[in-house]
Design brief:
alpha+beta; 4-stranded mixed beta sheet; two-stranded antiparallel ribbon; 9 helices; 8 strands
């Protein structure tokens, strides 16, 4: 059914609490009107893209870090961006196009709906690429303290789920990134 004044209809639905505006031209039904909770991961995938959930948000989703993450953080091949919406804070970090598509998987949320997320290994690579890019040149001895102290990563849980084949596939793509090279070597040799 067409509306002669769609903007007016959107405004009416917002006033009635049926619709939430997340950004210009992007709306979601309110949870009361839709009858179910929003999937923050699906919203993150659709709000700005292309993108996939990564960094601490993915590590938290895999229960590898103890912290509950406030902002849902994704990686994108576009510019860095942030959206503070009625359903949460969504941040996006730029990653080089050559690294962007590696290690991304489709995962089902609690409600069975799929979303794009980095594998645990890729989320770690993204953290080391984006968070440590300006840090001093590391030594091999710096990797474990970075995982345990900076990220508070559960290395025992990571050891249970690590995909060595994926790490070997990722290795050539990170050959010029010292932190990442040392991370892959540490994970392959110590977990």
């Amino acid at each position: 059914m067409g509306y002669s004044h769609p903007r007016r209809k959107l405004g009416e639905m917002q006033k009635k609490g049926q619709l939430l505006r997340l950004k210009k031209g992007f709306y979601v039904l309110s949870k009361e009107f839709a009858g179910r909770e929003h999937s923050p991961q699906i919203v993150a995938n659709l709000l700005y893209g292309p993108s996939y959930v990564s960094l601490e948000s993915a590590l938290s989703d895999y229960q590898l870090i103890p912290e509950k993450v406030v902002a849902l953080t994704s990686v994108t091949s576009q510019k860095n961006k942030s959206f503070d919406t009625p359903i949460g804070l969504f941040t996006y970090r730029h990653l080089a196009s050559s690294l962007y598509p590696l290690g991304v998987t489709l995962r089902k949320g609690r409600d069975g709906r799929p979303f794009l997320i980095a594998t645990a290994e890729k989320a770690l690579m993204d953290v080391f690429t984006l968070k440590f890019e300006n840090a001093a040149a590391p030594r091999a001895a710096d990797i474990e303290p970075s995982l345990r102290e900076d990220l508070r990563l559960d290395l025992n849980e990571l050891a249970k789920r690590i995909d060595r084949k994926l790490l070997v596939e990722l290795e050539p793509h990170y050959r010029y990134r010292v932190w990442n090279r040392l991370l892959i070597k540490y994970l392959l040799n110590n977990l």
